[in-house]
């Protein structure tokens, strides 16, 4: 039964981590994204508003929402009970303006 559980932590854009959390191999990538959004640390400059703004990357591949952890994982022989690290990329949704142009709000500001 314990072989069906995977410990995963999520590495954010600034190098900080969320987790680790233990997941069943039947958990979907979408479920992981929901957890990342709900446990997002306070005070970050980039904050996802919804799970669809988050991309999870493992072993250089963007993971698809409908895939399970069991389907996505690489053979974990080298982990030997360790924690799998998934990288988190926040990609804010595009908002269409009245002019028909797309606007991306990155929440970045410059002051002089």
UniProtKB/TrEMBL annotation:
It is a lipid-anchor. CDD domains: Ubl_MUBs_plant (cd01814). Residues 6-74 form the Ubiquitin-like domain. GO terms for cellular component: plasma membrane. The keyword Lyase does not apply. Keywords: Cell membrane, Lipoprotein, Membrane, Methylation, Palmitate, Prenylation. Gene3D superfamilies: Phosphatidylinositol 3-kinase Catalytic Subunit, Chain A, domain 1. SUPFAM superfamilies: Ubiquitin-like. Its main location: membrane. It comes from the Eukaryota. InterPro entries: MUB, Ubiquitin-like_dom, Ubiquitin-like_domsf, UBL3-like, UBL3-like_ubiquitin_dom. May serve as docking site to facilitate the association of other proteins to the plasma membrane. This is Membrane-anchored ubiquitin-fold protein.
């Amino acid at each position: 039964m314990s072989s069906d559980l995977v410990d995963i932590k999520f590495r954010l854009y600034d190098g900080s981590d969320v987790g680790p959390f233990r997941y069943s191999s039947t958990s979907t990538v979408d479920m992981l994204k929901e957890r990342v959004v709900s446990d997002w640390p306070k005070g970050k400059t980039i904050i996802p508003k919804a799970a669809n703004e988050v991309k999870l990357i493992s072993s250089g591949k963007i993971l698809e929402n409908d895939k399970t952890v069991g389907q996505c994982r690489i053979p974990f022989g080298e982990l030997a009970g360790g924690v799998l690290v998934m990288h988190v990329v926040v990609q804010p949704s595009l908002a269409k303006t009245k002019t028909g142009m797309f606007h991306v709000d990155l929440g970045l500001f410059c002051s002089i």
